[in-house]
Amino acid sequence: MFTGAHVILYSHDAEADRAFIRDVLGFPYVDAGHGWLIFKLPPAEVAVHPSEGPPRDELYLMCDDVRAVVAGLASQGVEVVREPADQGWGVLAAVRMPSGAELPLYEPRHPVAHSLDSD
What we know:
Elements: H1 14-24, E1 29-31, E2 37-39, E3 61-62, H2 66-75, E4 80-86, E5 90-96, E6 102-108
Parallel strand pairs: 3-6
Antiparallel strand pairs: 1-2, 4-5, 5-6
C-alpha cells in the first residue's frame, strides 16, 4: 500500500524557494539535515492529461478561494504573474517564486479526489 507521494521541485535557487515555501506559504516542514527542508503538503490528487508534446509534470496548489489567496500573497510582496482567471473547470492563477519559477494556484470547480475515503 502506498503511504504518500513525494513531489520534487527543481530550482535555480533552492534555498530561496525553500524559504518562500516555509516563510510565505507557511508549510510545516522537517529538516532532513543541513537545511534540506521537506514540506508537508495539503491533501493531494493526481490527474493524467493527454499531451501532444513530451510528457511533463506540473504542480498546482489548490485552494477554496484563489482570489483571496492571491490577494494575500500580493500583500506580502509576492509577484502575481497570472491574475485569477475563470477557466470553466476552475479558477487559475500563478505567483512567482524567488527562483523565478511560476507556482500555479487553482480553485477547482469540479469534483475533487483529495478528500475521498481510502477504504
